[in-house]
TrEMBL record:
GO biological process, one term: intracellular iron ion homeostasis
Keywords associated with the record: Coiled coil, Hydrogen ion transport, Ion transport, Transport
GO CC list: cytosol; lysosomal membrane; plasma membrane; synaptic vesicle membrane; vacuolar proton-transporting V-type ATPase, V1 domain
Subunit structure and binding partners: V-ATPase is a heteromultimeric enzyme made up of two complexes: the ATP-hydrolytic V1 complex and the proton translocation V0 complex.
Coiled coil: 8-57
Keyword Transmembrane helix set for record: no
Pfam families per record: V-ATPase_G
GO MF terms, alphabetically ordered: ATP hydrolysis activity; ATPase binding; proton-transporting ATPase activity, rotational mechanism
Species in which this protein is naturally found: Coturnix japonica
Entry keyword Transport: yes
Domain of life: Eukaryota
Family: Belongs to the V-ATPase G subunit family.
Protein name: V-type proton ATPase subunit G
Length: 122
């Protein structure tokens, strides 16, 4: 009986050592997975930064050419506005005098039309 009890004890001890080895292997595996995950995250971050840098360079190149077009359009617009403003200042008095002379000669066409419409509606 003693040898049987000793054999059982040996089996229990062997089972305990095996469980400890399995637990240690699981810990090592988890550490390796964690390390691999951290390395992958660092690699992903590095790749993302590289792609973002490339994108910014392409964006700057595209916007740089677009910016010069915008500047040209704004310059042309300012020139056209200046010409329109000059024409306005030059012709302002003439047009006002013409309008005033029409009003004094024939009467205001809008007033007479409103009067006619008012008479018709009565």
């Amino acid at each position: 009986m003693a040898s049987q009890s000793q054999g059982i004890q040996q089996l229990l001890q062997a089972e305990k050592r095996a469980a400890e080895k399995v637990a240690e292997a699981r810990k090592r595996k988890n550490r390796r997975l964690k390390q691999a995950k951290e390395e992958a995250q660092a690699e992903i971050e590095q790749y993302r930064l590289q792609r973002e840098k490339e994108f910014k360079a392409k964006e700057a190149a595209a916007l740089g050419s677009h910016g010069s077009c915008t500047t040209e359009v704004e310059k042309e617009t300012q020139e056209k506005m200046s010409v329109i403003q000059q024409n306005f200042q030059k012709n302002r008095e003439v047009v006002l005098n013409q309008l005033l002379s029409l009003d004094s000669k024939k009467g205001c066409p809008l007033r007479s039309r409103k009067a006619k419409d008012a008479d018709l509606s009565r």
